[in-house]
Amino acid sequence: MDIINRSPFSESTLLWRTLVNVCKLCGDLNLGKLASKHLLDLTPDEAGSYVLVSNMYAGEGMIDEASKVRSAMKDLKLSKEAGRSWVEIDNMVHHFVASGTDHPESIEIYARLDLLRDEMKGRCDSKADLDLIYESV
After folding, report:
1. What pLDDT, in 10s, does the model give residues 74-99?
2. Which BP terms from GO are recorded (predicted)?
3. How far apart are CA 79 and CA 57, in angstroms?
4. Are 71 and 118 contained in the same domain?
5. CA-CA 20 to 30 A from 14: which of 32, 38, 80, 120?
């Protein structure tokens, strides 16, 4: 932590978000708590930071702590905007919103995602790999 605090990037939210995420992936809750405090001090009005910290706790089975972070987010009236993606296929642009069902082929898309998720699940070596899959799909 000392090296970060002495660096010219100690106020970088990207650095602290990255550190919280790495702690989550590696299961280093002690460092993750410290990094989370710095992150939330730097970005008290950014919902994404609270979601990241909450997910770190939830990933370690600390549901009460995750709930406290989500409650703080709610008390501050913060909400995270859904992720959006655009894909061009055969000169046609398809727009997707995370967990959305507006696309005319959403049933087929989610069915295919379920198959891909099951296939990837069978190829994973660790819980961290599975967590990445579930966050990404």
Report:
1. 999 998 877 788 889 899 898 888 77
2. RNA modification
3. 18
4. no
5. 120
